[in-house]
Write a structure and sequence with these properties.
Rossmann fold; 6-stranded parallel sheet; two-stranded antiparallel ribbon; 8 strands; HAD-like_sf; metal-binding; HAD_sf; hydrolase; magnesium
Length: about 170
Protein backbone atom coordinates (compact mmCIF):
# COMPACT_ATOMS: atom_id res chain seq x y z
CA UNK A 1 0.00 0.00 0.00
CA UNK A 2 1.69 3.16 -1.19
CA UNK A 3 1.41 6.65 0.21
CA UNK A 4 -0.14 7.72 -3.09
CA UNK A 5 -2.98 5.20 -2.69
CA UNK A 6 -3.56 6.29 0.90
CA UNK A 7 -3.67 9.92 -0.24
CA UNK A 8 -6.16 9.05 -2.99
CA UNK A 9 -8.34 7.12 -0.52
CA UNK A 10 -8.55 9.86 2.07
CA UNK A 11 -11.55 11.74 0.65
CA UNK A 12 -13.53 8.82 -0.79
CA UNK A 13 -17.28 9.08 -0.18
CA UNK A 14 -18.45 6.40 -2.64
CA UNK A 15 -16.93 2.98 -3.38
CA UNK A 16 -18.08 1.31 -6.59
CA UNK A 17 -17.58 -2.34 -7.50
CA UNK A 18 -17.77 -4.33 -10.70
CA UNK A 19 -19.10 -7.87 -10.18
CA UNK A 20 -17.73 -10.55 -12.51
CA UNK A 21 -14.01 -10.88 -11.85
CA UNK A 22 -14.14 -8.52 -8.85
CA UNK A 23 -16.81 -9.69 -6.40
CA UNK A 24 -16.65 -13.12 -8.06
CA UNK A 25 -13.81 -15.13 -9.55
CA UNK A 26 -15.04 -14.17 -13.02
CA UNK A 27 -16.32 -17.60 -13.98
CA UNK A 28 -19.85 -17.91 -15.31
CA UNK A 29 -21.76 -20.97 -14.12
CA UNK A 30 -24.76 -21.99 -16.25
CA UNK A 31 -27.14 -24.76 -15.23
CA UNK A 32 -29.00 -27.06 -17.62
CA UNK A 33 -32.19 -25.00 -17.25
CA UNK A 34 -30.36 -21.87 -18.45
CA UNK A 35 -30.11 -20.27 -15.02
CA UNK A 36 -26.77 -19.26 -13.60
CA UNK A 37 -25.16 -18.95 -10.22
CA UNK A 38 -22.25 -16.99 -8.81
CA UNK A 39 -19.91 -17.49 -5.88
CA UNK A 40 -19.20 -14.50 -3.63
CA UNK A 41 -16.57 -14.18 -0.90
CA UNK A 42 -17.77 -13.55 2.64
CA UNK A 43 -14.49 -11.68 3.24
CA UNK A 44 -15.45 -9.17 0.56
CA UNK A 45 -18.95 -8.84 1.99
CA UNK A 46 -17.61 -8.09 5.46
CA UNK A 47 -15.27 -5.46 4.01
CA UNK A 48 -18.16 -3.76 2.24
CA UNK A 49 -20.23 -3.80 5.45
CA UNK A 50 -17.33 -2.25 7.39
CA UNK A 51 -16.96 0.46 4.75
CA UNK A 52 -20.67 1.31 4.88
CA UNK A 53 -20.63 1.34 8.69
CA UNK A 54 -17.87 3.96 8.46
CA UNK A 55 -20.12 6.17 6.33
CA UNK A 56 -18.80 5.41 2.83
CA UNK A 57 -21.59 4.88 0.31
CA UNK A 58 -21.44 1.85 -1.98
CA UNK A 59 -22.61 0.90 -5.45
CA UNK A 60 -22.37 -1.92 -7.95
CA UNK A 61 -22.16 -1.34 -11.69
CA UNK A 62 -22.21 -4.50 -13.79
CA UNK A 63 -22.40 -5.10 -17.50
CA UNK A 64 -24.36 -8.31 -16.93
CA UNK A 65 -27.72 -8.71 -15.21
CA UNK A 66 -28.51 -11.63 -12.91
CA UNK A 67 -30.82 -12.19 -9.95
CA UNK A 68 -27.85 -13.44 -7.91
CA UNK A 69 -26.24 -9.99 -7.98
CA UNK A 70 -29.48 -8.32 -6.94
CA UNK A 71 -29.78 -10.76 -4.05
CA UNK A 72 -26.16 -10.17 -2.98
CA UNK A 73 -26.59 -6.38 -3.08
CA UNK A 74 -29.75 -6.68 -0.97
CA UNK A 75 -28.05 -8.99 1.53
CA UNK A 76 -25.20 -6.53 1.99
CA UNK A 77 -27.42 -3.43 1.99
CA UNK A 78 -25.75 -1.89 -1.07
CA UNK A 79 -28.21 0.84 -2.05
CA UNK A 80 -27.08 1.60 -5.60
CA UNK A 81 -27.24 -1.30 -8.04
CA UNK A 82 -26.92 -0.94 -11.80
CA UNK A 83 -26.97 -4.11 -13.90
CA UNK A 84 -26.90 -4.70 -17.64
CA UNK A 85 -24.99 -1.48 -18.18
CA UNK A 86 -21.80 -1.61 -20.27
CA UNK A 87 -21.57 2.21 -20.26
CA UNK A 88 -20.20 2.39 -16.74
CA UNK A 89 -18.95 5.97 -16.95
CA UNK A 90 -22.43 7.15 -18.03
CA UNK A 91 -23.95 5.26 -15.08
CA UNK A 92 -21.42 6.79 -12.71
CA UNK A 93 -22.24 10.26 -14.04
CA UNK A 94 -25.92 9.65 -13.26
CA UNK A 95 -25.10 8.43 -9.76
CA UNK A 96 -22.76 11.32 -9.00
CA UNK A 97 -25.51 13.74 -10.01
CA UNK A 98 -27.94 12.04 -7.61
CA UNK A 99 -25.44 11.99 -4.73
CA UNK A 100 -23.90 15.40 -5.46
CA UNK A 101 -20.38 13.97 -5.48
CA UNK A 102 -17.32 14.55 -7.68
CA UNK A 103 -15.12 11.98 -9.42
CA UNK A 104 -12.36 12.66 -6.88
CA UNK A 105 -14.65 11.35 -4.12
CA UNK A 106 -15.11 7.99 -5.84
CA UNK A 107 -13.12 4.76 -5.59
CA UNK A 108 -13.69 2.03 -8.17
CA UNK A 109 -12.55 -1.59 -8.29
CA UNK A 110 -12.59 -3.35 -11.66
CA UNK A 111 -10.90 -6.03 -13.72
CA UNK A 112 -11.48 -5.63 -17.46
CA UNK A 113 -11.70 -3.18 -20.34
CA UNK A 114 -15.28 -1.94 -19.70
CA UNK A 115 -14.05 -0.78 -16.26
CA UNK A 116 -11.10 1.19 -17.59
CA UNK A 117 -12.83 4.52 -18.38
CA UNK A 118 -14.09 4.68 -14.78
CA UNK A 119 -10.80 3.50 -13.26
CA UNK A 120 -8.95 6.27 -15.10
CA UNK A 121 -11.48 8.98 -14.17
CA UNK A 122 -12.09 8.51 -10.44
CA UNK A 123 -10.03 9.61 -7.45
CA UNK A 124 -8.97 6.04 -6.64
CA UNK A 125 -9.21 3.58 -9.52
CA UNK A 126 -7.95 0.09 -8.74
CA UNK A 127 -7.73 -3.29 -10.44
CA UNK A 128 -7.78 -6.75 -8.90
CA UNK A 129 -4.62 -8.87 -9.07
CA UNK A 130 -5.94 -11.03 -11.91
CA UNK A 131 -7.32 -8.14 -13.96
CA UNK A 132 -6.42 -7.80 -17.62
CA UNK A 133 -2.84 -6.61 -17.96
CA UNK A 134 -3.82 -3.44 -19.81
CA UNK A 135 -6.25 -2.53 -17.02
CA UNK A 136 -3.62 -3.14 -14.31
CA UNK A 137 -1.20 -0.88 -16.19
CA UNK A 138 -3.65 2.03 -16.14
CA UNK A 139 -5.02 1.65 -12.60
CA UNK A 140 -3.77 3.72 -9.67
CA UNK A 141 -3.13 0.49 -7.81
CA UNK A 142 -3.60 -3.27 -7.96
CA UNK A 143 -4.81 -5.46 -5.11
CA UNK A 144 -2.71 -8.39 -3.97
CA UNK A 145 -5.80 -10.60 -3.84
CA UNK A 146 -7.57 -11.93 -6.90
CA UNK A 147 -11.16 -11.11 -7.77
CA UNK A 148 -13.63 -13.10 -5.68
CA UNK A 149 -10.86 -14.01 -3.24
CA UNK A 150 -10.67 -10.99 -0.95
CA UNK A 151 -9.74 -8.23 -3.41
CA UNK A 152 -12.80 -6.16 -2.48
CA UNK A 153 -11.97 -6.58 1.23
CA UNK A 154 -8.44 -5.33 0.59
CA UNK A 155 -9.84 -2.36 -1.36
CA UNK A 156 -12.29 -1.52 1.46
CA UNK A 157 -9.60 -1.76 4.13
CA UNK A 158 -7.31 0.50 2.09
CA UNK A 159 -10.02 3.19 2.05
CA UNK A 160 -10.67 2.76 5.78
CA UNK A 161 -6.94 2.95 6.53
CA UNK A 162 -6.56 6.05 4.36
CA UNK A 163 -9.36 7.73 6.32
CA UNK A 164 -7.99 6.68 9.71
CA UNK A 165 -11.02 4.45 10.37
CA UNK A 166 -9.64 0.92 9.99
CA UNK A 167 -8.58 0.42 13.61
CA UNK A 168 -12.00 1.51 14.88
CA UNK A 169 -13.76 -0.71 12.32
CA UNK A 170 -11.73 -3.72 13.46
CA UNK A 171 -12.03 -2.86 17.16
CA UNK A 172 -15.82 -3.09 16.87
CA UNK A 173 -15.34 -6.88 16.69
CA UNK A 174 -13.17 -7.22 19.81
Amino acid sequence: MTQELLKRGKDIKLAVFDVDGVLTDGRLYFLEDGSEFKSFSTLDGQGIKMLMAAGVQTAIISGRKTPAVERRAQNLGIPHLYQGREDKLVVLDELLGQLNLSYEQVAYLGDDLPDLPVIRRVGLGMAVANAASFVRQHAHGVTQARGGEGAAREFCELILRAQGRLDAALAAYL
